[in-house]
Design goal:
The complex is a heterotetramer. Chain A has one domain. Chain A is mainly alpha-helical. In chain A, a hairpin with a 2-residue loop joins strand 1 and strand 2. Chain A is built from eight helices and two strands; from the N terminus they run αααααααββα. The radius of gyration of chain A is 18 Å and the shape is globular. Chain C starts with a helix and ends with a helix. Classes of the chains: A mainly alpha, B alpha+beta, C alpha+beta, D mainly alpha. Chains C and D meet through helix 1 of C and helix 6 of D.
Chain lengths: ~200, ~260, ~180, ~200
Amino acid sequence: MKVFGEFIKGLWRENPTFRIMLGLCPTLAVSTSVENAIGMGSAAAFVLVGSNIFISLVRKIIPDKVRIPCFIVIIATFVTIVELMMKAYAPLLSRSLGIYVPLIVVNCIVLGRAEAFSSKEPVFKSILDALGMGLGFTWALVMIASIRELLGSGSLLGFTISKHFEPPLFMILAPGALLTIGLLIGMFNHFIARSRSRKTDG
Amino acid sequence: MMTQILIPVVTMAALGLTFGAGLAYALKIFGIEVDPKTALIITKLPGANCGACGKAGCAGFADALVKGEAVPSGCPVTNSEARKAIAEILGIEDTLKLKQIAAVRCSGGNKAKDKYVYHGIKSCRAASLVFGGYKACAFGCLGFGDCVEVCPFDAITMGDDGLPHVDPERCTACGNCVKACPKGLFTLIAEKNVYYVACSSTDPGGAKAKVCSASCIACKKCEKACPVSAIKVDANLSRFDYQKCQNIGKCFEVCPTKVIKKR
Amino acid sequence: MSQLLKFGLILCAICLAATLVLAVTYQVTKPKIEEQLRREEREALETILPEADSFTEKSVDGLDYYEALKGGELKGYCVKVTGSGYNGFIRMIVGVNPAGVIEGVEVLEQQETPGLGADINKIKPGEKDPWFLRQFKGKDAATLEVKKNIDAITGATISSRAVTDAVRKTITEFLAKVKR
Amino acid sequence: MDSISAYISIIISTVFINNFILSRFLGLCPFIGVSKSTGPAVSMGIAVTFVTTMASILTWTIYEFVLIPFGLEYLRTLTFILVIASFVQFAEIVIQKKSPALYRVLGIYLALITTNCAVFGVAVLNIDMFFLHGKPLAGSFLKSVVQGFGAGAGFTLAMLLMSGIRERLEFAEVPRCMKDAPITFIVASLMSLAFLGFSGFKI
């Protein structure tokens, strides 16, 4: 059960976007449409799982002082693979994600999990953790994107919901993104605090 | 086809070699030792340097831990085993909050003049509804002891100088007094910080002196005296920066109205 | 010395392995990527000059373009135009008939801000093609000017101006060269 | 050589119009994490400016003299991040030895910068904006360096503004669940709304 806990924590208790607040750059920039969000989420999850496996495999032989450059090279390899694959097989998605695909390499979640977790844990656990984190990141991204796309361009997954509703452009732009994630984290804290206080009172 | 693969591999390998060797060379020439305890803690910390703890990366957080300015749970990214390990190294139990104690930011009480004679309900909250309380100083303590009643550990007793006094042993920093006081005079300050400013009025110095003999008249003597510039007068009131304060006590000696109190 | 060697070798080994994997993936995906690019360009050509049936690639003084022919007879040219927009370059293909009148404009690639500059490609609900690019059709290349005969996208004057100026400059330059 | 105004316009556009944090969304993790008080925020800003400028120089040269001749543009991500990580590690070691005082103020942030999106972002943007079909535009090197510096300066400006506000925020009445991070996001959203005002014109 404990091992399964590693996977679950990434989704809720230690959700990378809402709780640990890592990987904010792509989250805010790319969540203008749910389609982009799913694309970015899955790309990040692939890189996360792939690099975590290799890093936990190779963790024993790398001396501590040169640890960061080695981990980053492994992560960069997976990011470039995703980049090439996307250009070849999903050109539209790769164009809409723009420079944020190569930016997965500096995404704090990937290196954060690599350093915090997989450089100290066995392979199996770090795969689970990576999957949990990847999924947690994706569903947070999709949640933000659905709000922003619905309000910002009056559509969801590309289908315009209503033609005459004049969408406030503000939600698509930078301020809208920051506002959405701010309110969501606030809500998240509220739920966590209430569930924690109910646990202690109960 | 083969050369298409050979060229990148050779160039990148060469790049890797130069950077690896370069780093090792730099380490040999410029290497210095870090004090073992911090180094040990750094290995336990995630090393992601994400800044979520507010400190500058894990090394910064480790220093803060060793200096006692931070608590293992300050780093949201580590899991519970790592936090227990760090707590062992530091030799403290993994308390969630750094030990804090409540402090009253007012030293007026009987020393503060009254605006009018008040015969209403004997409670600070009720009194402060009537034109902000009967004291001439709008920020001052009304002395009806709402805090005393609300404190579950009766760590607060009302002194004969008309001011509440906090017993450091009993106070568990539960924060009830902070919520209860209508003037917001109570704050929770880390136990290691010995000094605090017992005044919260931001009126100009002269006006304060007229209504209360024990108020911070913003004379800035403390600001000039403090060697580590941990205290600064901002909006007519001197405020501590507890990240810099090292309990030297110069400000305490130099304060003319004795508003900076020692716990 | 051993530490020096150890670090160097480790990093070198990892880079070597990484690049090996990447080089192979690149060789595998390279043809697919090029094919995608060619497919997009072909689609763009077809939408601009639907009546032409064959396009021959040519270039004059570094300006590469396609000659659109219908049964051997010259119908017009499709010129590759690059404008510098708000976030980077905007790559377009502009169809122009020998008389210098614009047949159509298609944007191949742009990095403009989504919702603002990226609206040069936006198709209004119920319509078939982006309204902003439709304005160029039937106008003489030399007279293209934002606010005069091309109205800009609200809040994205830079991108609108980038497209209009790039089309005007490159096409007039191209027509002059081809005529000679 | 381009006139000086071209470079000034780049600086103004990277600091105000396309501020790296508020409109390009690069470098948000330290922006939320380290801007609690002005001291660390400014040191972080200076460290980032130093690294973005140096990174721009290094990555431009590597791209021009190593990647293009051998046709390895697709390895851009790998080489850039390797260069940045190694440079940051190298700079940290040198500063730690050469001047411990500077290290106490600046050095500890250097480790934070390897995973900073702003540094890698500016390196990639330099290539996208100042290279066309593999050939550098006129004055492309100097423009990249100036853009690197501008990015760092914009980063510092945003960090400074945010830390000033957050210090005032300590005294504000903020609902408990909105404390700390959520309120910072909302303040950042208002700041980025203000910065949108700059986005209208191009110099």
